[in-house]
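Page 42, continued from yesterday. The earlier attempt failed because a stray header line got pasted into the input along with the sequence. Redoing it now with the clean sequence only.
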Amino acid sequence: MNSLGRLFSASTMSLQSVLDVILGITPVPGLSAAFTLLKLIVTSVQKVREGRRQLEVLANSIAHLLEALNAEFSASSLVPSACVRPLQDLYSLLNDIQSFVQEGQERSFWKALFAQDSIIPEIDGFYRRIDALANALFRPY
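This time it went through. C-alpha cells are written below.
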C-alpha cells in the first residue's frame, strides 16, 4: 500500500492504535518534532474523552441514586421529613455538578483542553459527596 493509502486507512484507526503506530516508528530527523506534537495531540484528545466518559459515569451514578431514593420514598422506607438535611445536601450536590458541567461547556475548546487535568479530581470529589449522601440516607435507623 502506498503512503496515501496508509494515510487514509489510518483515518479509520482508533486514537490508541494511531498512538501505538506512532510510538513504534522512529521518525526521520526532520519529522521528530511533528511526531512529538502528534503524540501530544493524541494524549490531549484521550484526556478529553476520559473526562467526558467520567462525566457520563457520574450522571449514571446519580440516576441510580435517585432511582433508589424514589423507590425508598415510594415504599415509605424513607420519609422526606426524616431526611431534610441529606436532601438539602443532595440538591446542593446536584447544583454543583450542573454548574461544573455548564462551566465546562462554556469554556473555549482550548481552555477546556488544558483544564482536563483538574476534571478527574473534581469528579472524584463529587463521588465522595455521593457516598456520604448515600450513607446518610440509607443508613439503618
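Notes: Residues 32-74 form the longest helix (43 residues).
Reminder to self: strip header lines before submitting.
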